[in-house]
Amino acid sequence: MDSVTLRLLSWMGEVVCEPPNNKLDRFVGTLYWKDSRYPLDNEKLLLRGCVLRNTEWCFGMVIFAGPQTKLMQNCGRTAFKRTSIERLMNTLVLWIFGFLLCMGIILAIGNSIWEEKVGKNFRDYLVWEDVLSNSVFSGFLTFWSYIIILNTVVPISLYVSVEVIRLGHSYFINWDRKMYYGQRDMPAEARTTTLNEELGQVEYIFSDKTGTLTQNIMVFNKCSINGKTYGDVYDEFGHKVEISEKTPCVDFSFNPLRDKKFHFYDHSLVEAIKLGDPMVEEFFRLLALCHTVMSEEKNEGELVYQAQSPDEGALVTAARNFGFVFRARTPETITLYEMGKHVTYQLLAILDFNNVRKRMSVIVRNPVGQIKLYSKGADTILFDRLDPTNDDLMYTTSEHLNEFAGEGLRTLALAYKDLDEEYFADWMKRLHIASTTLENREELLASLYEEIEQDMMLLGATAIEDKLQEGVAETIACLTLSSIKIWVLTGDKLETAMNIGYSCNMLRDDMNEVFIITGHTVLEVQQQLRRAKEQILGSGRETANCSKDAEKTEQYRNDSVFEETITSEYALIINGHSLAHALEADLECLLLDTACLCKTVVCCRVTPLQKAQVVELVKKYKRAVTLAIGDGANDVSMIKTAHIGVGISGQEGMQAVLASDYSFAQFRYLQRLLLVHGRWSYYRMCRFLCYFFYKNFAFTLVHFWFGFFCGFSAQTVYDQWFITLFNIVYTSLPVLAMGLFDQDVNEQNSLRQPKLYEPGQLNLLFNKRQFFMCTLQGIYTSCVLFFIPYGAFSNTVRDDGSHIADQQSFAVTIATSLIIVVSVQIGLDTNYWTAVNHFYIWGSLTVYFSILFAMHSDGIFRIFPSHFPFIGTARNSLTQTSVWLVILLTAVICVMPVVAIRFLRTDLYPTLSDKVRHMQQASRKQRPQEQNLKRVRRTSSRRSAYAFSHQEGYGELITSGKNMKAARLFPAPPTGRIPGSSSWIESLLKKRTEMASGAAVGPLNGSAERSKSENTPVQQQHID
Amino acid sequence: MMASSYNAKEEDGHHSVSAASGPSAGPSAKSKKPDNTAFKQQRLPAWQPILTAGTVLPAFFIIGLIFIPIGIGLFVTSNNIREFEVDYTGVDASSPCFTCSQTYSWNSSIPCKCAVSFSLEQPFESNVFMYYGLSNFYQNHRRYVKSRDDSQLNGDKASLRNPSKECEPYRSHDNKPIAPCGAIANSLFNDTLELFYIDPNGTRTQIPLVKKGIAWWTDKHVKFRNPGGNNFNLTVVFQGTTKPVNWRKYVYELDTDPENNGFVNEDFIVWMRTAALPTFRKLYRIIQKKSNMTPTLPRGNYTLDVTYNYPVRSFEGRKRMILSTISWMGGKNPFLGIAYITVGSVCFFLGVVLLIIHHKYGNRNNSADIPN
C-alpha cells in the first residue's frame, strides 16, 4: 500500500470546478489528466460529514475545505442572539434615561427660578461667588448635579442581575434530572445563558425529522402471512395485551446467528416456523433474499448488516432471527443459512426499486434449480399484479394492512412467482438487449420488469415501525395545546415525511384537507398555494396578514379572528422544489399566510439553507419567537437562524449541538424545556424586571420631590452611605432570590396545563404597559415616601422637645420606610417562599438595621468623624414612637392599593395561572393528585406506502460487484492490501462512470490508509 | 396533559442504565446524572401565599380597625397640646419690631431691642418648650448643608487650624482659620429672647429659661467636642483662629459656663443640626415646671423681649417664637392623627367594597373551569 501511496504522490492532475456555493444537489467540474478531460458531477462528489460504509478506504481529492464546503456554505451566519425582553429592556433604559434628562431639566429650570426669586435674597446666609451668581448658570450646574443624583433611576445593576438570574436558570436546566437521558448518560445543557426567558415565549417550532422526531430505527413489528397476523400478544382470555417492557420476548436461542437486539413478542410465529409452515418459510426466505443489504461477518457468527435504508435492515434482521439468515452475497449468489443449513441461491437479476415502480424484485435460482421471483412493494402496486386466484387472500391481507396502517406502521406487501425456465431465459435475453440499448433504455427496462412481475402469488405483508422517539406524539400534542405551532422541515421524501406526520398525530384523517404543494414552476406553486388559501378562507375573503408594519397586537387580533372562523383543520405539505419557488420575494407572503392558516406544516426534501430561509421568513413577518430543533449538520443553519436553537445530541455527530443554544438527548425534553423551564424563566424575569424598575423609581424620585423644598439645590434626601448600599446590599438579594426561585405554578401543573404558556407568547407579563404600571407604582411610592414624613414632621419635635424634623432624622425615616416598603413589596411579589427567600428578605432587613446602627454609632464616628456625620441619628429618631407611626403609615399607604388591585384582578379576572394556583393550594391540602394520563391514540387509517428512503441504482451496484470488498470475496489478506492494483488508476478511471453514488469524491479509488482520506471519504450522505 | 409519564419511569429505577448500555461511560466513569437534591431540582419546600378573599379582606378590616383608634388617639393627643406662636419679624409697620427689622443689618454694632406682648388664654400646665421658628430659611440647601467641618467641631486640632474646603467661603478670614467654619455656623441664630409675665397688677416677672438639655445627648457628648476637651482654657485653645464673619463674639465667648461653651454650646449645636424643610423650628429654651400647684405658664399677659440681631427680611423670612407643651408623640401636629384616621377609614371602606364585589362578582370557585 505504501508504494501505491507514493505513486499517488506523483500523480498530477488538475480540477477545474465551480466556485464554492451552497447548492447541495449540483456540482460541475472537469478533471484534466494526461491530456484528457473527465467530467465531474454531483455523483462523484461527497459532501462533508458523510460516513464511509462498506468500503474500508478510498482515495479522494479535497475540492473544498473548511468554510468553502457546501455544507458550511449552507450554515448561514452566526448572529448574536438576544432576547426580545433584552431588546425591550434596552429601549426602556433609553426611555428612562430620557426621563432622567427631563427631570434634570425641570429641576434645573426650577433652580434658575428659585435662584432668581429666593436665592438672590438669601445671599446673606449663602454666598455665591460672583461668577456663579447668574441664575441660569446655576440652573445649568444644578442640571448636572441632578443627573448625578438621580442616576440611580437608570438601573445599571439591572444588567448584572439579569445575567446572574439567567446563569442560575441555565444551571437549573443543566441540573434537571428529568431532562437527563440515562442511556447515553447525557444531561440537558444550556449552552448559552442569554436566551432563557425567550424559551417561555416560543410560538413556532421548526423541527427536523430523522433523529429528532424519530430514532432512525426501524423495527419489524408485525406481519401477515397467508392471511394470518402475527405480532400481537394475547392473554389467556384472548384479549390483546399492550406490549411493555415486561412482556416476555420470543426466545431465539435456537438460532446461533440471531441478532440479540431483536425483540419479538408473538410466540406463534416461531411455532409456525418450527412446524415448517411452507408459506411462513417462503415469507422469510423472501425477506432474506429480496433486498440490497450487504452483510459483513467480522468474526464467525457476528453478522453486521449494512443496509441502505433502515427499513430494509429491519426486514432482513427479522428474517435472520426467524432462521433465514442472510449470510453473504457475491454479485451472482446469495448465501443463506436456512434453519441450520447453508443454502446458496443464484442471483439472476435484481429488478431495482424506483419511485414509479414502488417495488423491487429479485430473481433467483434455488439449489433445487427452480427459478423464483420474489417481490416486495407498496400494496396498491403489488395487489394489481397478483394472480386472480389470490383474491381471497388479498382481501384478508388488505384488512390486515389497514389495521397495521392504523397503528402508524409502514407496510409492505410481499409476493413471489415461480418462473418457467424457458420463459426466463428468453426474458433474460431481452433484458440484456434492453440494458445495452442507448435509447429509451429506462423505458424498455421498465416494461420488461412490468412484464415479468405479473400473476404473482401473495405471501403476506410486513409492518415496520419507524420508531418515534419516546413521547414524541404526546409532546407534540402538548406543545400544540400550548398554541405553539410545529413545522416539520425535513430532507426526507414526501412519503416518509407524511408517514411520520401521521404517526406523530400532526396529520390526521379527520383533517379537512391536506394540501400538497409539489409544483415545479413558480406559476404552479402560486396556483396551488392560492387554491389552498382560498379553500381555507372560503372564496372571496382576502386578507393580507403578511405585512411587516402590522403591530404585533394587531396581528394577534387577526390571528384570533382566523382561529375563530377557521374551525376546520388543514395541513400543508410542500416539497423542496416548490419551496424554492415559494420562498421567492413575491410568493413568500402567500406561502406564509397559507402556512399559518394550517394546523400542520411539513416541508420535505428541503436543503439546510431552505430550512433557514423558512425560519427567517416566519421571523421576519410574524415577529414571533421561533425555535429550531434538530440533530444533524444539516440543521445547523436553521438552528443558527432561529431565535433559539436546540440541538439533539444524537448519533449524527456534534455539529448541531455545537451550533445550538440548548442541547439534550431526546425530543420529548423539549416540552419540559419550554413549558417548565422556559415558562418559569420568562415569568421570573418579568417579575424581576417589574420589581427592579419599581424599586429604583421609588428610591430615586424622592430626591425629585425633595428638590422642590430645598431650593432645587441637588441636596440628597438620604445619607450618602445609604445611596451607595441600597441597590447593592439592602435590596439586591431578595429580588435575586425571587428571580431565581419563584414559581407561580409547580412543574406538574405547568405541564398539565399547556395553556399556561400563552401569556409568554402574547408577551403579557412584561411589556411597555407593564413597565408603565410599575414605574407609576414607583412614582406613587416615592411620593408617599416623601410627603407623609413631610406632613408628619413639619413643626413636630421629639418627645423630649428636641429636634426630629432635622435633615438627618428625616433621611433615616424615609430610608427606613423605603426599605420596609420595598421589602413588603418583594414579599408580595414572591409567590414561592423558599428558605433562601426567607433568609434574604429577613436578612436584608436585619442587615439594613445593623448597618444603620453601626454607621450611626459613636465608635465609627470617633474613627472617621468627617465620613459618618449621621452619628446618633438612628438612635435618636428610631426610638421615637411617632417615627415608627410614620413608617407604618407610609408602608400601609404604599402597599394597600397594590394589594387591593391585585386582589380584585385575581378575584374578578383570574388568569389561568391564578386558577391553577388556587387549585394547587386546594390540592396540597388534599392528596397528591392522580396523574391524568391520556395516551394519545392514533386514529389514522392511512396506509403507508413503500416509504423506503431508498435510492435507485443500488441493485445495479450489487450486481456489478463494485462494492464487494475484496476482503470478503477472497481469503482475507492480512494487511488489507489489494492484490493486483498496480494499474489501479487507469482502470479506475475507466470504471468511474459506472460508479454509483456510493464511492469517493473525485474519481480516485485505490488503496490508502483511511486517515489519509479524512476529508473526502464518505459514502452515504445524510441529507436528513 | 400527559405530564410526567416518562419522568416517573426514570425515577423508578433506570439509574443503572448508563452503566449497562452507555457506549462511552464505563462502569467506573462518573455518571453525569444531576444530583437529586431539592435545590437542583427546584423542589425546595416553600410557602406559597396567595391573595385570597380569606386573607385580603380581613387584613383590610384589621388595618382599618387598628388605624382608626390610633388616629383618634394621635389626634386627641395633638389637640391636647398647648401651643402658642407669635411672629416677631416686624413686617407690618404696626409691629413692635418694625423699626428693628427695617434698620438692622449684620454690621450694625448697637443691638436693637423690641418687646412683643401677648396673652395666653389658657394656662400651660406641664413643662413648656420655647422654640424659635424660621420660615423660608433654606437650611436644607445643598451648599449650605455641606458647609461645615465635622472634624473641626469634634475637636480635631488639625481641622481647627486648617478647616475643610467645604467651609468655603467661610473658611478663613484675615488669614486666620475660622472656628467654627462654614455657612451654617456663620449664620447662627443670634436673637436673644426673654419672657416676662405681666401680673394683673402690672409687675413684670422674668420667667426663668433653662438653656441646657435642648440638644441631643449624642450631639452634645459625642459629635461636638472642644479641642483638647472641655477643661482647657478655651481662649488658649482657640488661639490663632478667628470668629465667623457674622458673629460678634468668639466661639469661646458664647457662654460663661465651661460646660456650655465653645463647640459644645447647646444653642450652637441645635443650630448646627440643619432642618429638613425650609420652615422649621428649633428648641431655644425650656421652662421647667416649678411645682404641681401652679401651672408653668398661667394664663395672662406676657411680654417677649427680643434682642433683634438676626435679619430675615431680605429673603422674606419670618421669625416666630413658639411656646409648646409636649406629649408622648412629640409636638403638636394634627397631620399624623388625621392621616391615620383617613387611611384607617379608607382601608375599612375598601374592605367593605371588596367584600361586596367579591360576593357579587367574585370567582369563588376558581378552579372550576380549568380544562383538564
TrEMBL record, chain B:
It is a multi-pass membrane protein. The gene is TMEM30A. Keywords: Cell membrane, Cytoplasmic vesicle, Disulfide bond, Glycoprotein, Golgi apparatus, Lipid transport, Membrane, Transmembrane, Transmembrane helix, Transport. It is found in: Apical cell membrane; Cytoplasmic vesicle, Secretory vesicle membrane; Golgi apparatus; Membrane. The chain crosses the membrane at residues 50-76, 335-357. Belongs to the CDC50/LEM3 family. Pfam families: CDC50 (PF03381). This is Cell cycle control protein. It comes from the Eukaryota. PANTHER family: CELL CYCLE CONTROL PROTEIN 50, CELL CYCLE CONTROL PROTEIN 50A. Residues 1-35, 148-172 are annotated as: Disordered. Residues 18-29 have a biased composition (Low complexity). Residues 163-172 have a biased composition (Basic and acidic residues). One of its GO terms (cellular component) is Golgi apparatus. One of its GO terms (biological process) is phospholipid translocation. It comes from Scleropages formosus (Asian bonytongue).
